[in-house]
Amino acid sequence: xxxxxIPGSSGINAEYGGHRNLFLTASxxxxxxxxxxxxxxxxxxxxxVAGYLFAVEWSPARPLVFAAATSHxxxxxxxxxxxxxxxxxxxxxxxxxxxxxxxxFNSRRADLLCTGDGQGTVKVWKLGEGLTSPLAGEDQILSxxxxxxxx
Length: 151
Hints:
Strand order of the largest sheet: 1-2-3-4
Number of strands: 11
Order of helices and strands: EEEEEEEEEEEHH
Oligomer: single chain
Helix content: 10-25%
Shape: globular
Structural class: mainly beta
Number of helices: 2
Largest sheet: 4 strands, antiparallel
Strand content: 35-45%
């Protein structure tokens, strides 16, 4: 994860991975943006209405899956094979809606994801097989999504 500067956005957290030349950003303007490093503008902008977005990360197992952490204490899981605009799973990281500032997939165990919130609580989540089992052709699907968005 790297902090970068993109004109017109603030509080950017960027995640490279999932697919070569593609990266995700989470921002305090409450948007998730998917970019191709080969294009100047995002090919997808998501507005989950879950507050500011503090962290984003690609799944190490599935190129079409990524997660985001929000200022309302939510963990959002996206699976672009199922929906390109809405999270397939939204979990409360704590009972008080304290901001979730960090998240990380486990690189050795793709079914584990952890979150860290503003109260200093770290939780480890076990994800279901549908979000962690690699599917044939996902890289090609992601490439087509990115390419078709620029047509």
